[in-house]
Amino acid sequence: MKIKPGFLIALSFLIVVVLLVLQFKAREPLLREVGPTSSSEAIIYLRTLNDKKESLLKEIEKLEFRVLELNEVTLEKADFERSLNQEIMKWEALLGLKGMTGAGLEVTITPQKNQVISAETFMDLINDLWGGGAMAISINKNRIGWNSYLHQIDNQVFISGRLIESPFLVEVIGSTQVLESVLKIPGGFEEKMLIQGVELKITTNNRMIISAGGVQ
Amino acid sequence: MILFILALAIGVGVGFYLPWQIPLIYSKYVSIAIVAALDSLFGGLRAELENNFDNRVFISGFMLNAVIAAFFAYIGDRLGLDLYLAAVVVFGTRIFQNLAIMRRLILNNYLKSRERK
Lengths: 216, 117
Known about the structure:
The complex is a heterodimer of chains A (216) and B (117).
Chain A: H1 5-34, H2 39-94, E1 100-110, H3 119-131, E2 136-139, E3 142-143, E4 150-153, E5 156-159, E6 162-164, E7 168-173, H4 176-184, H5 189-196, E8 199-210
Antiparallel strand pairs in A: 1-7, 1-8, 2-3, 2-7, 4-5, 5-6
Chain B: H1 2-17, H2 24-49, H3 55-79, H4 84-116
Helix pairs in contact in B: 2-3, 2-4
Family (chain A): Belongs to the UPF0749 family.
Protein name (chain A): DUF881 domain-containing protein
Pfam family, one (chain A): DUF881
């Protein structure tokens, strides 16, 4: 079958047109995105991009420096938080809100029959011990905390409303040497007790446990 | 002439509505193939005007030139040589030559027909 030349050329033309349109479709978004159509424009565009790249690199450098600074601040914050937590724990222990373990003293006070140890004497003892850097104090297992109170009715002494009876066991956690020296200082608690004829026994315990007093 | 206008319209329509795009990495090779195809097309038109058009020569030229030009561009890319420039120069020159010859032929035909009148 002989095909007419005009028809064949037109068919080829159609194929070329289809290819051209497809090519336009493929390249058009790229040109729209990149912008430049000539090499000189491309060079300018490239230079602009290089400038942008450099400014971005500088920006990145600045931001990295800022990140380092922020990291330092965060670390400082973490240190601050840690020391704050330690301080809170210390105060919780001092206030009797938290149980404590550690080295300390056991002071056993045994008065003679009909001899009265007043609430004031216990107050003096407690104050002496706090002064000696005590971390936790308990009398007959009654933790002395921020809201503890002592009072006396006749010959009976109460700690936060609880009666304490002889022999009195005072447990205290802290530096054993300092606490002992506080108690044994001339004119101090030990001497007062000896003068009154009260039997006083001070022993050291390296693993003492004083439980939390709780809020009453 | 009507056939060409029809082919142009159909070609544009088909090209636009075809749900397919030439991948960008092959875009360069298709461009070269189009230039080669255009060269064959103008060569065919010229041959038709000179009354020595041959279907086989036209079809083989149209197909092979496009394929070989694209292949040249591809090989050039692989070798790091701008071989596609050779195709662009050769086909570009031939297109202009063919267009010049066609112009002369059409002009001569037109003048002859006017003289006859």
